[in-house]
Design brief:
Shape: globular
Strand order of the largest sheet: 3-2-1-4-5-6
Radius of gyration: 17 Å
Helix content: 25-40%
Oligomer: single chain
Number of helices: 8
Order of helices and strands: EHEHEHHEHHEEHH
Length: 214
């Protein structure tokens, strides 16, 4: 089995993420792409991040219509900061026979040598950096046989811009999936309308079978 792993904060998930996953799935003939929302992203400790349960549920909503996409809680349910090496080890333990392809932004990939246990990650997965047209990977020391760049025009969309637009009262329709727009509006995410985050009860840990959102 060839398994794509798309890790990210997904704050919020947008069409750039979905198009990137679809393009990589087609190019590398992946049987499945599992989206893995970060629990506590160590690179973003200096800014406020939407609670993991909200980000997880938005990702479930966004991917529900594609039978080739699933969502994993491995990073959310693991205590402490989220590191890619732990994500890959956990998924390897769950899917010991799968060939892993880790999908991330090309900008992040250029800094991968600074990640925790970076030298051990190459044995766990092939890394795919999704990027805008014309981008060149600047990172040195990356093994060429374990890294691939994938151009995805929709990567011009960013989660930062989506949060800013919501905060400014501007629409994010067609930048993020319709269900995610409705979720953001329901819980007033990114709008600054409330001082505290709304409480969302933790979702039970799903089985390997696909979970349907009703």
């Amino acid at each position: 089995m060839r398994l794509g792993v798309m890790g990210g904060t997904f704050d919020p998930i947008h069409h750039g993420h979905l198009v990137a996953a679809s393009e990589v799935q087609s190019r590398f003939d992946l049987d499945e792409v599992v989206f893995v929302p970060t629990g506590q992203p160590w690179q973003k400790a200096d800014r406020r991040v939407t609670p993991a349960e909200h980000r997880y549920l938005m990702t479930v909503v966004a991917t529900a219509s594609n039978p080739g996409f699933t969502v994993s809680r491995v990073d959310i349910d693991r205590p402490g900061p989220t590191y890619t090496i732990d994500t890959l080890r956990d998924l390897r333990a769950e899917r010991p026979d799968a060939e892993l392809f880790f999908i991330t932004g090309a900008d992040a990939l250029a800094e991968i040598l600074s990640w925790k246990d970076a030298d051990q990650m190459w044995d766990l997965a092939h890394f795919i950096g999704v990027t805008r047209p014309g981008h060149e990977l600047s990172g040195k020391g990356l093994p060429e046989d374990r890294v691939t760049l994938q151009v995805v025009p929709a990567m011009a969309i960013s989660s930062t811009d989506c949060r800013t637009r919501v905060a400014d009262g501007q629409p994010v329709w067609y930048l993020v999936p319709d269900g995610v727009v409705q979720y953001i509006n329901k819980y007033h995410l990114y709008s600054g309308r409330q001082a505290t985050w709304p409480r969302v009860e933790p979702t039970p840990k799903p089985s390997r079978q696909r979970q349907e959102v009703l």
